[in-house]
Structures are given as structure tokens and as C-alpha cells.
UniProtKB/TrEMBL annotation:
RAMA domain boundaries: 140-194
Native source species: Ignavibacterium album
Domain GIY-YIG: 9-72
Protein name in UniProt: GIY-YIG nuclease family protein
CDD domains: GIY-YIG_SF
InterPro entries the record matches: GIY-YIG_endonuc, GIY-YIG_endonuc_sf, RAMA
Superkingdom of origin organism: Bacteria
């Protein structure tokens, strides 16, 4: 057993009377277990298990995952995930956006228009058009004497010729093959007066 784990990478677990006590990571499992016979874990465990692995950048992630899932009493700190981030702020933002969109849909009128304008201004560049319309809306464009039809879905994606585009400009480029064109000026929709106006009117 000593020869098998000496100098090997892996994750190990310590137990006390069949209950998980500690989860650890080591690049020399035998050396680490010997250390635990003398450090603060001395006497707190009576058997162990080792899981041999090859050296990998994912080993730390594996250890962190095990600690968070099992929450052993011997681990004072929870493991951290590389390049991870807390999602609470993003979740709060998404919930707020959803609530604002729902409120605009229910109230309608000037409130809905202000909400639509706010979303349209934020939808520049690569940002989605999600929430601008609460139902699928037809789009129309004329280019070199030909009329093209498309639609904006509730999720903000533009459906043209059975293909989805994230922005008005990307859909316009698919038609014109031009690298410089504004999809907000290219595409038109019917406003509340039933008139065809360019998408850019949403921002005004």
C-alpha cells in the first residue's frame, strides 16, 4: 500500500467510525497521511480512502466539489472553484428584468413604452432584444427592390428564412452581405398606430 500511493497525486478522505471527517488533496498521498497523524487531525480519524489520479488542473476542482457536497467537519474552509463567480447578483438582476417586463405587459400604455425604450437602448451591440416585445412581431425590409420578411420572437431572437439571429444587424447582413449596415434602420415594424417604422424608433 505504501509503495502504491507514495509520491502519487490524488484525493483522499479521512473517516472516524465510518463517518466522513475530512477531504483533502495531495501530490504525495503517503506523506500527507503521515502528516495527519501529527497535526490538528491527530486522533480525529481512524481510517482513510485514497483516490489516485494523474496530475491535472481539475484535481483542485474535484476536491472543492467533494468538500462542498459532503461538508466534512474536519474541513474548516470550503473549496473554491477556479474562475468561478457567485451567481446571486446575476440571478437578482434577471429576476428584476423579468418582473419589470411582466409589469410593463400588464400595465401597458406609457409605462410599457418607457420600458420598451429602456430595453431598446440597452440592446445595442451584441445585447439581446429580449423583452422589447411581449409577443412575436413581424419585421419588414426593402433592399434593391425586394421586400424581405422576418420576425422578432419574445426571447429577442430574429427569425429570418428559418434561421435565428441575435441582433437586427446580423439578420440585415445576412441579406445585404454588407459589413457596415444598421439593422435598426434596415428593419421596420408596425407601431401602435399601425404604421411601418424602423426599429430605431424604439430608442427615441
Amino acid at each position: 500500500m505504501k509503495n502504491l500511493i507514495k509520491g502519487r497525486w490524488g484525493v483522499y478522505t479521512l473517516y472516524k467510525k465510518n463517518k466522513l471527517y475530512y477531504v483533502g488533496l495531495a501530490n504525495n498521498l503517503m506523506g500527507r497521511l503521515k502528516t495527519h497523524l501529527k497535526d490538528r487531525h491527530r486522533g480525529a480519524w481512524d481510517r482513510f480512502s485514497v483516490y489516485l489520479t494523474i496530475k491535472s488542473s481539475h484535481i483542485k476542482e474535484l476536491e472543492s466539489l467533494l468538500i462542498r457536497v459532503t461538508n466534512p467537519p474536519g474541513n474548516k474552509l470550503q473549496g473554491k472553484f477556479i474562475n468561478s463567480k457567485a451567481l446571486k447578483r446575476d440571478l437578482v438582476y434577471l429576476l428584476k428584468v423579468h418582473d419589470d417586463n411582466k409589469r410593463a405587459s400588464l400595465i401597458g400604455g406609457s409605462y410599457a413604452k418607457r420600458r420598451q425604450k429602456t430595453l431598446a437602448k440597452k440592446a445595442g451591440g451584441k445585447n439581446s432584444l429580449e423583452g422589447i416585445f411581449n409577443k412575436r412581431v413581424k419585421l419588414k425590409a426593402k433592399y434593391k427592390g425586394i421586400t424581405y420578411w422576418a420576425s422578432i420572437r419574445k426571447d429577442g431572437k430574429i427569425n429570418y428564412n428559418n434561421k435565428l439571429y441575435l441582433t437586427p444587424t446580423s439578420a440585415a447582413k445576412a441579406i445585404t452581405k454588407r459589413s457596415t449596415i444598421s439593422g435598426w434602420e434596415f428593419w421596420h415594424y408596425k407601431d401602435d398606430k399601425n404604421k411601418w417604422v424602423c426599429l430605431n424608433k424604439l430608442r427615441e
